[in-house]
Structures are given as structure tokens and as C-alpha cells.
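User: Can you predict the 3D structure of Cystathionine gamma-lyase? Sequence below.
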Amino acid sequence: MSTAGDGTRAVRAGLPEPRPGEPALPGPAFAAHYWLPGEADGPYTYGREANPTWTALESALGELETPDGAGRTARAVSFPSGMAAVCAVALSLLRPGDAAVLPSDGYQLLPALRELLAGFGVGVRTAPTRGDAQLALLDERVRLLWLESPCNPGLDVCDIRRLAEAAHRVGALVAVDNTLATPLGQRPLELGADFSVASGTKALTGHGDLLLGYVATLDAGLDAGVRSWRRLTGAIPGPMEAWLAHRSLATLQLRVDRQAATARALAAALRERPEVTGLRYPGLAGDPAHPVAVRQMRAGRYGCVVSFVLPGREHAQRFLSALRLVDEATSFGGVRSTAERRARWGGDAVPEGFIRFSVGAEDAEDLVADVLAALDDAARGGTAQASPLRA
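Assistant: Sure. Here are the predicted C-alpha cells for Cystathionine gamma-lyase:
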């Protein structure tokens, strides 16, 4: 499978050898314990330690995260959410007296993680994703450099390879939150990172119906540390969620490519609107992140999220209320488009009119037309009738 195309890898990843009369993807294994007569031993003993459904999913994720020509397959550990995966890396590695460098513009729960680490005696340093500020914070005390690229919700991009090389020179490990890109859009391990971490809740599984996270690494020792943390804390995924996630991987390339193409079309249309400011999409020529994104993201897959700013809170809310094909909801990456006024939640340094728009799998022409019509309605002061889809 290492020489197959991305679509083939996604469809076949983690499947067992075919057996007559058996399903291609066996159903979820619900078990708290396993039969172990006498002195028998086996790969599965107790439900907190391992489950065959996790094993299949983790095999698939490892295949998708493996760098081309690596000569060995990445190891993946699944978790019940993206934040569980984030905490597994940070808390299994960092000790009092260590230092960590985190993005100042990353996911909104990172400030809470920074406070937790500081309470444990870890020195936390922060810097924005774009530019060279992270480089100035690296020294021999730093144990972990945490990157998020593209970052959420601002969509800035960092040069992962350059930062990983600099971190390794001072003895630090590098973790990349790859949630927005997915392993088909970017492979952090191929760019020199030690960990690729993601929320599988979002684009990886793409249907908005489960919570999941994972950590992937090429290093057996790092894998063992994260796996031990999961065992100790009991931060385990449910077998049904793991099975649904594995099932969803088969359409990953189709979804990623469709959503990225539509996101580019939407960004291009938004660029022509006078009331839209602060437009960001890494795949858009002229975006500040575009030069780096072109070098390190794969096959034009720049993600499904477009961000932009409308003139104030009320204007943004009129726009969201006028959308007919878009759910007003948080999260991103699903086959149904969603949008939100991000400032409503707090925790992000964004204007009141900041919109995070997640492009789904709708026809591009329909979605762009809906957005433009909603912008027109918002500019008029909000006169559109409620959509039948919202009845």
C-alpha cells in the first residue's frame, strides 16, 4: 500500500486479510474483558488496554500518516477526543523544570492547557504561528515545541520542516496539530515532526457524529509513552466510535478534495465583496500563508475552512441567519457546511464579526450562491424569509 495513491490507501487502510464469508471491515468489538482460560495469554486481555476495533483503526491511521519512503509504518494511538490526544502528548512528556513552546493563536483550549502545565512547574512560552517568533524561544530547556498548522481559527501556516530542524538541534521534540489538514493534506512526520496529533471529530471522519482523537509517531519509544498514558488515565475511545471512524476513512480523499475545491471557490468569491475583510484561506493566491502552504501541503489540499470578518456582531449574525444551506454550529470538517461567529465562545483573539466557515460537500455553485445571497441580505439589514430547511 505504500506505493498506492491516496484514495486507494484511504479505502484499504487497516483492513484485515479477507476471509470467506466475513465482512471487509469487521463490526465493533464490545468487550470489557476477554476469555483467558488457564495461563492463556493473547493480544486482548482487558478493555482499558486494547480492543480489536481500535487496533484496526490505529493500523489505518498509521498507514495514512506514514511518510513516503519511510521504510517503517507509523504507529497510531486513538483517544476519545482531540484534546485527550493533545493532553496525552504534553502530559506524558513534560516534567517540572521543562519548558514548552505553544502557539499563541491556536485552538481555544490551549490557554487552559498552558495554565495546567504552568501549575505543574513547566515553563510555557508562546508565539504566533506565522513568522520566526518560535525560533527565538527555543533553547536547551525546551522539551516540546507544539505547532498547529494551519492554525484554528486564523489559518496561519508555519514552516514545519524548518522549525522541526531547529527544535531538534536543541534537543526538543516536535508535535504538530494536523486536524485541519488531515494526513491527506499534510504529513507532519514527513516534514520532520515527532508527533502528528489530530482531532478525528472533524475532517478526518467528516460526518459530525462522533468524537475522536489520535497521536501518530514513527518512534516506538514515544508511542509506548503515549500508549501507557492512555492505559493509566483510561482515556480510551468507544468501540462504536472507533468503528465509525474507520468506516469514514474510505471517503476521506473524496471529501477532502471536494471540500478544498469548494473552499477555494468560496474564498475567491468572498474576495470580491467589499464588506468582507480579513479573508484567510491558505489555498488562495495572495494569502499570507500561501507560499509556505504550497511547499508543505499536499496536492492542493488546503483544508475546508475559510475565515473572514464582517462589519460587527449584528451584521455577522444577520449573515448567519440568512444562510439556507449552512448550519450555524461550531466545529468543522463535516459534509454539511457549518459557520459560526467565533467570538461568541470567547477564548480566541478575533473581532466580533469574525466568521469561521467550514465548507461541506454541497455543490460549489449552490453553496457560493447561498453565501452571496446571505451577504446581500445581511447588507440590506436582514429581510430574507426563513428557509424550509430550517423549519
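The CA atoms of residues 155 and 280 lie 6 Å apart. The first strand starts at residue 75 and ends at 79.
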